[in-house]
Amino acid sequence: MSSRIKELPPELKQLAPTTVEKGTKLFGAGDKCQQFVYVVSGNIRIDLASESGSSLLLYRLNANDTCVLTTVCLMSGDLYSAEAVVEEEANIITMPAKQFFNLLESSALFRSFVFASFSQRLSALMVKVDEIAFRSIERRLASCLLHHAKGGSTVNLTHEQLATEVGTAREVISRKLSQWERDKFIAKKRGEIQLLAIPTLDALSNDRSEI
Question: How far is CA 155 from CA 112, 159, 186, in A?
């Protein structure tokens, strides 16, 4: 968590974490927000779904994160416009909406924590918007592959999953991967991609010629 965010408020420390299994859907588009969420550990992804059925990764929640969409929906009364799914088993602390609003009014420490966390996550979301609006598909896809390789040379994601991560259509990803396979940058297998030219992909991911 950023140094801008102060120590976890005692009101949150007093609440017992709940373990949520991988694959659990925490909320979906159209659901009513009824609680504030703080992530102790694990990984949760927030996806925005279109009417056509395609999805776009908005952001991930990791240890010490709060969900900006949850905070917005709590304070506005709006329904969720995206869905949250647990990618890795997570421990989360939840606070009922009534307690959340009481603490916003009565605790300066809690209020500071909520808005500092909100600001940090919103800044990260703006970076995501910037990537989609101004970075080429090649640059975004190369960055995504390197990120999921985690220092290795194997990525275990489908074309559909990559499309969601990068923010484009599956067909676009398939065409680009086929081109990179012909160029010997990668090798495709079922549900797996081998990175054959990591320096080249790294150069693509850092190419700022389109900016």
Answer: 39, 11, 10
**Whole-angstrom Cα distance, residue 66 to residue 51?**
27
d(CA 113, CA 14): 15
The pLDDT profile of the chain, 211 residues, written as one tens digit per residue, is: 433 344 789 999 999 999 999 999 999 999 999 999 999 999 999 998 766 667 788 888 999 999 999 999 999 999 998 999 999 999 999 999 999 999 999 999 999 999 998 888 888 778 777 777 667 889 889 999 998 998 899 999 889 889 888 888 888 999 999 999 999 999 998 879 999 999 999 999 886 554 3
Tokens 């680009």 correspond to: 176
First to last CA, the chain: 29
CB 171 within 8 A of CB 137: no
Residue matched to tokens 């395609």: 54
